[in-house]
Design a protein that fits this description.
- By secondary structure, this protein is α+β, with helices and mostly antiparallel strands.
- The protein is about 30% helix and about 25% strand.
- The protein has 6 helices and 15 strands.
- The longest helix is centred in the N-terminal third of the chain and has 21 residues.
- The chain is globular.
Amino acid sequence: MPYPEDLDRWREACHIAAGAREVGARSAVPGARRIDVAEAVESYIRSHGAEPSFPTNLSRNVEAAHYTPSPDDTERLVAGDLLKVDVGAHLDGAIADTAVTVEVGGGRDHERLRKAAADAVEAGIAAVRPEGPVDEISRAIESAIHRHGFKPVANLTGHSIERYLLHAGISIPNVHGMSPEVLHEGQVVAIEPFATNGAGAIVEGAFGNIFRFRRDPGAGDPAVAGLFSRFRTLPFTLRWVAPPLRPHLLKARRHLQVYPVFVERGGGLVAQAEHTVLVGPRGAEVLTRTA
């Protein structure tokens, strides 16, 4: 893919997502409800003229990814929770994807694990180059995590991004030897390492309150057609759907993908870090970096 024609929109979406990520990190305090943190993030995105490109993921402790609060969620964060704040924003389908891990309450019990993920994303970014093998990025991520004494999560990956496509076909594994792909100048990709003190793999858990249309459902049900027009194939959640429209999703089940929470297979804690980057002529331009 050449440079996106609407590159300025990508840059702006990433700037908004980076700000929203920081809102989520600051909001993750002991006693805060996960639903309030998610809605603070999403309100920030909308107030800056964008839309969330997926529901804010607030996965904690052994949960690696894909948990967003349901409309009636009352669960509160507690001090010591290891919370992944995974945020997305888009402008007309130009998608940003970024994440940070925080220890709720500001403690340092899990600082080494958090640092393993943070160092790994920087190592992966440093390995990005045009016509460079994806496997070099994977090797850099894996080595950075191992240096801290932890394991990368082998079956979670970064990914390429295209307009209205959050996962656009190229995966960027967090362990080496799994990808024959090469990145090209002008591609947008998410570098997304996960580090754990567990088994180094995830399994599927309970429903994470996230849906995605697999395909256009057609015009048979105008309510469902309206939801597809709004979300396209980007992930969404019931919190974003007006209560009278929610029963219509049951009729559209064959058109929907549902997302389970990803849980560390060995019961280990998981830390995540993520940036959206542009593959430039001399390497990665990090689009979701704060100033």
